[in-house]
Structure formats: structure tokens, C-alpha cells
User: Which sequence fits this backbone?
């Protein structure tokens, strides 16, 4: 509980700065409106107006909170205006993509650690894949899949996998290589086979690294999914919500969707962290 | 038991060939306790590793139990103890000891019985369920010795097993190791850089020197099999230690 005070202080400071910024950024519009109506605004009126605009440049925290509440609790969850519904669309694609990406990352890492040719040939391509801007690749993936008649979850999951396999690959390669020469020599002295070395030494040694990169990977998968939703015709998902918000200048809607995405990402990372804690404790690696 | 005939091992490095071992002749009989001592780079660890088939000699002949080192390894002729315990942190002590047994395909009941037996042998009864980090360094090293004993190899190869421990713990473990050697009758190859340790433990001391790594002297110990710790203050012990020191100096020539 001792940590509560500093945390609350920082939170309050952020909210305060946000309010000041909202007043500052929205004041031009409020003044223009007043000038057009040929009225003069008092300072108090200006503050009230800047914080209650329907399409503010920067919505105030309470507006975003109201938008979030409206999106989550104010709708039936099957409604197309519900953030829960859009969140679920995004979440399902994220989890599918994360599963594909992690599996690909783990398998590639196993190959890289065991095969010199793969070590030298796969890694450069993996790095290259991450230097391609995802914003440029995403529409092409969507288009290619759509031309094959595949739309909806899978194309987005592929983009999510594209972003999430890389941290898993890097972490897993590092993890599988942690056993030092002595531990490998011990295994050799027992004439252990390569599969035995893998299952009993390399894989358990790599788990702490795997979990660290899974946390990065799942957050990246969410980003990938949202980016994949942007060119999808803006029909469903948090990305679509962001896009339609920007089409119609619904800044409150954009911010509400942003916060929903952030909360989703935090939830996913925490969930992976919980699995990590339980697994490592069961293995006796947590002290 | 172990026969080395003109064994040589040359590593090719970027700076040219390094003669880690040159013309090493040695014969170790069953039940002997042989220590290898010498400055770093003298090839004592390398020689132990060639016996274990962790390195391959580039010249000469080496047999272990009448087989090539590689065959001997597959026949589980030896258990190897490294300087660090190398216990898996995710396995309990019992799990760690049972690891080589699992790899070699021992049955479950047999494994449990063997684990129990070797834990008793190294005086760690009741610690089987603990994780390595819950044990002191000395206890961890004892567990790693138990692991090397678990599959009943006749030969125990130990590469500075107590080098990382403080002197008090080291003394106790030396005593315990002698006791264990007497009880089990294993053949032990023991690498160390401590003269008192080599003299206290061994039936034979092999003094080695570097560049190229070779044997300069082989000293038979006149000390009795029964060796309490205070034997180290006897004139015989001191004379033997002196002889080893002489051998080390001789091998070094003008180096020091």
C-alpha cells in the first residue's frame, strides 16, 4: 500500500496535464465559434466549452471515460457500436495470430539452434521481414487473401503472426543456447541423444527467455491485428473503430478505442505473466 | 583399466597449432586414485577429457577398460564431475541425480533405489526433495558426485571438483571423498592445482607441465590407505608434498 501514493500522484499529474492540454488545443475552435456567433467568451465559459465539445481536437479525460463506458456498458455486446464486440473480433484474431507466430518462432529457433545452414540462412530473412513497414505489407496481405476468397479473421491473424514471431524467435534462440559447454559435456558424458538433450536441457533452460519474448510477442500481435483491420473496409474490430472514428472526426470514439486496445494489450501481457509465474514456480525456477 | 600410449593432442588455432598433450604414457590400474597436478595449460584437464571421449587424441593410443574412449563412454564406463555442480535448477536434487539414469533408460523403481543409495553415500539423506539453490555449494558438489556415481561406472573422473569451494569445506569433502573411494573401490582420476589436496588423496600423483603439455614426473604415494586429516602434519606427508613441488618446478624450467 506504500506504493499507492506515488502511483496516484503520477496518475493525477497525467490527468491534470491532459486537462490543460485539452483546454489549450480546443480553445481555437471554441473561440472561432464564439467569434462567428459574435459573442464574447469569459474564461470560465471557454474552459467549459473546450471540455464539452462534440468533436474536440483532444477530448478531455472525462469525455473519453464516458465514451468508453458508453461503448462497453451502454450497448448490447452484440451491437456493432459495442467496444466489447469489436474488442472480441480483435482479440480472437490476435490470439490466433499469436499462436501461429509463437509456434513459427519456436520451430524456427529449434531449427536454427540445431542446424548450421538454417542458422546462417533463416536469421537474415527474419530480420529483413521486420524491417518492412507493416503498414505497407498489411494491405497487400489483406488483398492477396481476399483474392483467394479468404477474409475475416485469418488475414489479420497472419499479420499479427508476422509481427509476433520475431521476438519469440530471437528470445528462443537465445534461450536454447543458454546451456553452457559444461552442461552439454555432461549430457555427452552420459551419451545423451540430441532429442534427449533438447527435451531435458535446452527446452527447460529456454523457458524464462521464451516467456519474456512471449510478452513482447502478444503485444506485437495486437498491434498487427489492429493494423490489419485498418484496410479491411473498416467493418469490425478495434482498428475499424479507430478508422471510422477518424473518417467522421469522432475523436472521442478514436480515443475510446485506443484505450480499449491499450487495456486489451495490458490484459494480454498480464495473462502471459501469470502463466509464466505459475510455470516457473512449478519448475522450481521462481524463488 | 586406463592405458595411454604416446597420446598427443594438438589443437589447430588461429595462432598456429597448440600442443595440449605430447607423448603422454600412463597406465592406471583398477582401484587407483590418481591425481593430475600442474600449472594451467599443462593439459591435465585435456587428458581427463580425452579419457572421457570429450576430446579426441590426434596421436597415440588410448584405451579405457580395453575399449576406445568413445566405446567406453557408451558403455557407461565413467562418471564425470566438473568444477561446477551443473545441477539443473528446475530439478530437485533427486531429480538431478536421476537425470543420467533417465537418459540411460533405467526403470522408475530402479532409479528411486539408486538415488536413495547414492544420496546416502555422499551423506545427503533427506535432501532429495530440495532444489539446488536451497543447498550450500559444498552440498551441491556432493550431489553432483552422487549423480556421477548413480549409474555404477567403475571410473570416476573429477576435474577440480572442489576448486571453487572454500578451504574448510574442501577439507571436509576431501575426507569424505577418500571415505567414499574406500567404500566403493572406484578408480578415480582427479585433476587439481592444489599440492596438499593431491598428496592427501592420491595413491599416485602425476605431475604435468605446459608447452607442450606432458608428464614430467609420476610419484607413488607411500602414505597408508587410512588417512585422517592430521596426516598432513606428518614428515612423510611434508616430504611427499616437497617432492611434488620439486617436480612442478622442474617442469617449469626457467619459466617462473
Assistant:
Amino acid at each position: 500500500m506504500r506504493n499507492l501514493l506515488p502511483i496516484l500522484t503520477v496518475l493525477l499529474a497525467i490527468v491534470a496535464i491532459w486537462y490543460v492540454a485539452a483546454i489549450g488545443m480546443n480553445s481555437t475552435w471554441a473561440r472561432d465559434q464564439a467569434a462567428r456567433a459574435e459573442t464574447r467568451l469569459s474564461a470560465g465559459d471557454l474552459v467549459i466549452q473546450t471540455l464539452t465539445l462534440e468533436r474536440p481536437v483532444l477530448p478531455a479525460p472525462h469525455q473519453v471515460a464516458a465514451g468508453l463506458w458508453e461503448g462497453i456498458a451502454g450497448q448490447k455486446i452484440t451491437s456493432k457500436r459495442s467496444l466489447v464486440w469489436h474488442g472480441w473480433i480483435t482479440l480472437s484474431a490476435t490470439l490466433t495470430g499469436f499462436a501461429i507466430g509463437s509456434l513459427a518462432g519456436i520451430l524456427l529457433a529449434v531449427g536454427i539452434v540445431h542446424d548450421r545452414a538454417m542458422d546462417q540462412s533463416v536469421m537474415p530473412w527474419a530480420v529483413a521481414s521486420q524491417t518492412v513497414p507493416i503498414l505497407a505489407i498489411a494491405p497487400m496481405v489483406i488483398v492477396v487473401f481476399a483474392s483467394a476468397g479468404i477474409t475475416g479473421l485469418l488475414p489479420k491473424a497472419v499479420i499479427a503472426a508476422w509481427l509476433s514471431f520475431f521476438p519469440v524467435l530471437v528470445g528462443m534462440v537465445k534461450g536454447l543456447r543458454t546451456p553452457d559447454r559444461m552442461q552439454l559435456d555432461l549430457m555427452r558424458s552420459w551419451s545423451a541423444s540430441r532429442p534427449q538433450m533438447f527435451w531435458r536441457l535446452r527446452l527447460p533452460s529456454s523457458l524464462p527467455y521464451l516467456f519474456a519474448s512471449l510478452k513482447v510477442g502478444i503485444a506485437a500481435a495486437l498491434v498487427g491485428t489492429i493494423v490489419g483491420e485498418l484496410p479491411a473496409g473498416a467493418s469490425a474490430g478495434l482498428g475499424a473503430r479507430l478508422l471510422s472514428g477518424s473518417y467522421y472526426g469522432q475523436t472521442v470514439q478514436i480515443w475510446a478505442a485506443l484505450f480499449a486496445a491499450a487495456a486489451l494489450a495490458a490484459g494480454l501481457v498480464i495473462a502471459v505473466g501469470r502463466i509464466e509465474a505459475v510455470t516457473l514456480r512449478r519448475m522450481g525456477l521462481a524463488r | 583399466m586406463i592405458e595411454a600410449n604416446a597420446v598427443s593432442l594438438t589443437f589447430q588455432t588461429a595462432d598456429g597449432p597448440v600442443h595440449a598433450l605430447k607423448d603422454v604414457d600412463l597406465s592406471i590400474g583398477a582401484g587407483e586414485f590418481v591425481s593430475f597436478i600442474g600449472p594451467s595449460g599443462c593439459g591435465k584437464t585435456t587428458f581427463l577429457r580425452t579419457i572421457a571421449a570429450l576430446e579426441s587424441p590426434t596421436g597415440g593410443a588410448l584405451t579405457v577398460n580395453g575399449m576406445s574412449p568413445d566405446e567406453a563412454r557408451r558403455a557407461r564406463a565413467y562418471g564425470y564431475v566438473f568444477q561446477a555442480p551443473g545441477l539443473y535448477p528446475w530439478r530437485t536434487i533427486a531429480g538431478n541425480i536421476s537425470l543420467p539414469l533417465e537418459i540411460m533408460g533405467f526403470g522408475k523403481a530402479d532409479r528411486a533405489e539408486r538415488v536413495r543409495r547414492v544420496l546416502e553415500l555422499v551423506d545427503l539423506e533427506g535432501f532429495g526433495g530440495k532444489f539446488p539453490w536451497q543447498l550450500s555449494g559444498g552440498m551441491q558438489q556432493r550431489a553432483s558426485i552422487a549423480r556421477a556415481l548413480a549409474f555404477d561406472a567403475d571410473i570416476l573422473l573429477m576435474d577440480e571438483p572442489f576448486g571453487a569451494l572454500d578451504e574448510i569445506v574442501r577439507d571436509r569433502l576431501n575426507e569424505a571423498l577418500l571415505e567414499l573411494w574406500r567404500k566403493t573401490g572406484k578408480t578415480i582420476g582427479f585433476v587439481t592445482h592444489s599440492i596438499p589436496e593431491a598428496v592427501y588423496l592420491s595413491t599416485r600423483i602425476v605431475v604435468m607441465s605446459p608447452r607442450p603439455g606432458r608428464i614430467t614426473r609420476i610419484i607413488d604415494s607411500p602414505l597408508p590407505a587410512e588417512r585422517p586429516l592430521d596426516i598432513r602434519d606428518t614428515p612423510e606427508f611434508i616430504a611427499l608434498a616437497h617432492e611434488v613441488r620439486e617436480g612442478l618446478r622442474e617442469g617449469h624450467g626457467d619459466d617462473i
Q: What stands out?
A: Chain A has two domains: 4-57, 83-282.
